[in-house]
Amino acid sequence: MNAELLLMFTVGRDRAYLYGHPEHKLTSDEYSCYEDALAQRSQGIPAQYITGHQEFWGMDLLVSPAVLIPRPETEHVIETVLSYVGRGDVGRKLLSGQSLSDFSTQRTSSDRLRIIDVGTGSGCIALALAKELPLAEIHATDISPAALEIARANAARLQLESRLKFGEGDLLRGIERSAFDFVVSNPPYVGESEEESVQLEVRKFEPRNAVFAGPTGLEVIARLIPQASEVLKPGGWLVIEISGTIAARVQELLAGWKNVEITNDLQGIPRVAAAQKT
Fold first, then answer.
1. Structure pTM?
2. For the chain, what is the HEC assignment?
3. CA 30 from chain center: how many Å?
4. Residue 250: left (phi > 0), alpha (psi -120 to 50), or beta?
5. Could you count the other beta carbons within 10 Å of the beta carbon of residue 225?
6. Contacts from 249-256 at CB under 8 Å and sequence distance 24+?
7. Class of domain 58-276
8. In angstroms, rounded to a whole number, what is the distance separating the alpha carbons of residues 177 and 164?
9. What does the angle CA 42 – CA 31 – CA 199 come to, to the nearest 5 degrees?
10. Pairing state of beta strands 270-276 and 232-241?
11. How many other C-beta atoms lie within 10 A of the C-beta of residue 33?
């Protein structure tokens, strides 16, 4: 599959073209490019970093070694946020037959749904939510200027740059209090003690500070939870990606919140923690 993906990248064609044109012969430049791509992959470099692209939520995103490669499991974060958007006053609008996007367009600027994506990386979560919630106000932050550059480029390519507000910073430090309906994040949550269980290509090539949180894996989440409580409106939601190894301890950190829920991924592994501010 990697060889096929790299061949598609080399010739600039999709899979249907490859199967429909078996007679296609690589030019000398294409052959050289393909050999180089295969050599990089043989060294363990992820195919997404070689091609510079990754699909997420039906979007083609630019990626580089400055950002974590978006994964299908993170789409559960999007699904969870959308499910909570559909509750309460918004949910009652939906039950009356009005679509979520229609409701979004009728909110006034002062009442507009406000979402902040913490540690945005490639921008995948923020962009997916902007795509699904046309007039929601989406903010995205990251501590890495290089990551923000990729996120901004993705927003521009998807013609969503006017919908997102990007900011550089450490988690939610300096963010307005009681201002957001949702805080969402795919934070680093792998403990350094688990390093040997992480795929070699992830350990070697993906940004370490986007994967490992510290000795236990809880270090970033333990800082994020109280900060989220400060910036959320009453009744607002915190939605974060987690792993099965820390699920129980995350629930403990969310003591004092209400409606704490853990959602499993398709493999039955705890993947998303959500909680509502009291």
1. 0.89
2. CHHHHHHHHHHCCCHHHHHHCCCCCCCHHHHHHHHHHHHHHHCCCCHHHHHCEEEECCEEEECCCCCCCCCHHHHHHHHHHHHHHCCHHHHHHHHCCCCHHHHHHHCCHHHCCEEEEECCCCCHHHHHHHHHCCCCEEEEEECCHHHHHHHHHHHHHCCCHHHEEEEECCCCCCCCCCCEEEEEECCCCEEHHHHHHCCHHHHHHCCHHHHEEECCCCHHHHHHHHHHHHHEEEEEEEEEECCCCCHHHHHHHCECEEEEEEEECCCCCEEEEEEECC
3. 33
4. alpha
5. 21
6. 249/216, 249/218, 250/218, 250/221, 253/218, 253/221, 253/222, 253/225, 254/225
7. alpha beta
8. 19
9. 15
10. antiparallel
11. 17
Phi/psi for 82 (5° steps) reads: -60, -35
* Model pLDDT for residues 153-169, shown as the tens digit of each residue: 999 999 999 999 999 99
Domain-wise residue ranges, the chain: 1-43, 58-276
Q: Above 60 in pLDDT, residue 219?
A: yes
> Are 229 and 277 contacting, i.e. CB atoms less than 8 angstroms apart?
yes
- In the chain, pLDDT over 90 holds for what percent of residues? 80
For residues 173 and 211, what is the distance between their CA atoms, to the nearest angstrom? 20
Q: Which of 59, 54, 113, 124 lies closest to 82 in space, CA to CA?
A: 113
Instruction: Evaluate the CA torsion angle 53, 56, 59, 64 in order and state its sign.
Output: negative
pLDDT single digits (tens) 105-133: 555 555 789 999 999 999 999 999 999 99
Cα–chain center distance at 92:
28
Mean pLDDT of 250-256: 97
**pLDDT of amino acid 102:** 54
